[in-house]
Write a structure and sequence with these properties.
With 192 residues, this protein is of the alpha+beta class. Helix content is 46%, strand content 27%. A hairpin with a 4-residue loop joins strand 6 (175-180) and strand 7 (185-191). The radius of gyration is 22 Å and the shape is globular. The model is unreliable at 6-38 (pLDDT under 50).
Length: 192
Amino acid sequence: MIQSQRTSIFKLFLITACSFAITGGGYYIYTRYAQSAAQGNISDYQGARDKAEVLALFKENFYWLSANPEYDPEYMLDNRAPSKDNMRYFGQIQIKVLHDQDAFVGFVAYYKKTADEGFLNFVCVKPEMRGKRYAEQLIRYAENDLRRMGARRIKLLTRTINHRARALYTRMGYSVTSIDEIGGFIYFSKMI
């Protein structure tokens, strides 16, 4: 009798565990599929396809993307360089774009600054596409690529009043390293 009860309890345990695993696993597979379907595809920047979209984002968001009113985003795109003044990294900037189906969503630009440090230069998503974690996907892509290149840390900066970006970077594990109250910038860093 006791053996029979143990067997029944064990069978009940197995059925419960299996049904939990199946529904939990199904939920995991569904959510991963839904996330990847909603997030689109990241690919290398192609001037003929993406230049107008990236330049339009710069025009619309210039204040948030650059502290230098003379900054030339077209030069950055054409030469894969952070700026005309910084020839050390000429040809080094990685520019990736995100499309959801055929629609341009946004871009990320980054480069390896030293042997073990990467710099996230720009991340920008079209206003109508914000709130869907596209910026997070672009940043994660840049982090993984910089890690693959040997970087152990990533640095970035944003304006102190850019509360959405600050919240995003904090949520993604970046820590504030310094604040320039006079210039209005906040600097972040993350070990990867």
